[in-house]
Amino acid sequence: MTTIFTPLTLKNGTTIKNRFAKAALSETLGDKNYQPTKELISLYQKWALGGTGLLITGNVMVDRNARGEYGNIVVDRQQDLNLLKKWALAGTTNDTKIFMQLNHPGKQSPKTISKQPVAPSAVPMTGSNGFAFNTPRALSIEEIKQIINKFTEAAAMAQQAGFSGVEIHAAHGYLLNQFLSPHDNQRNDEYSGTLKNRMRILTEIYTGIREKVGHDFPIALKINSSDFRSDGFSEEDSLQVIQKMDQLGIDLIEISGGNYENPKMQGIGKGAFFIDYAQKVKQIISTPIVVTGGFNTAIGMENAIQNNETDFIGLARPLVMVPDLPNQLKWGNFTSVKLHHLTTGSKKLDKKVGSLIGLSFYQQQMLRIAEGKAIQHTTNAWGALLFSLKHQGLSALMPQRDKE
Ligand SMILES: Cc1cc2nc3c(=O)[nH]c(=O)nc-3n(C[C@H](O)[C@H](O)[C@H](O)COP(=O)(O)O)c2cc1C
Questions:
Q1: How confident is the model over 18-39, as pLDDT tens digits?
Q2: How many structural domains are present in the chain?
């Protein structure tokens, strides 16, 4: 019988020792030159020792002029390969695999970072946090080709540094999701219109990376089940993109959903959010999948694997609260993890800074893990707020994502 501790070998031959996958969490532990800090490296060492089979890094930006938030890591020709090697080494301790998540924010780059972000089309961000983003300008074809090259080069550097694989981030409202979405992508060229055209940048990035890294190096994809808006990327589109990527040879598909305008991926206590959609995916492809979002009990995780509802359990916030969750589960010490609703004590203020708290609390705890300090189990949001102000200054108070 397949259990959560049964290894799985991907198409390309990479074996992952168990069915736990740490989903990407933007650690915001890059230095002022967008390089990994010693804290970031220490964090991955701790996670690797905690028993998770696959660690997916927080989103790494492929262009230093297009960043999503403060503390991002950028991987380009100016990056110090030795620091990346240390990060990869930490993440491969204890027979662990580490995939680098590659991203470009597109228009989801706040005013505090981008005077004029780029996007498929000059469609401004909507939603209650829209004010925090400048209206983007549309990319030229030449710029699209340059971005494709940047993804390809970043993947090649990850491989050179000793990462076990890469994951292309095409979810959560960032650039590749913007191209997939008919709402965001209103161009009039071969990168727009039909689904084949809207996914062209993604397929070109995939084939570009594949040509550089060869067939033995795993390439994963994180994709939305849907954007959950009527004029966005639909479930039907998503299934077709997954099928196409499968035909092209993708090694692993991670399923999430929503964006920061409609954050379906980050509820609390609602169970695994995308498990029904995963069943539809499993009917059309045989490539292994990771379902991320909402797992919080041992029984829920074990059942999802035993019933073949997913091949990997994607965990983000739970692995912050319990960094050695897989080991604990193995020893019979883990039954469930509770994610807390944080509050400032004022409903009005919570409404204003809720999105910031939701991210900064986990960022604060990741730094604590790196420094060997205990996780804080609290519902009081003030510590997380002060943490962000200390690290980012007043710009922390401006939303960095559309809405969460
Ligand atoms: C602080 C924070 C940072 C995140 N950063 C990323 C990221 O860089 N890339 C990504 O694909 N998802 C990111 N996510 C989303 C998670 O990967 C995941 O999809 C979501 O938290 C739901 O999973 P969970 O219920 O296990 O936490 C982030 C979530 C949080 C809370």
A1: 999 999 999 999 999 999 999 9
A2: 1
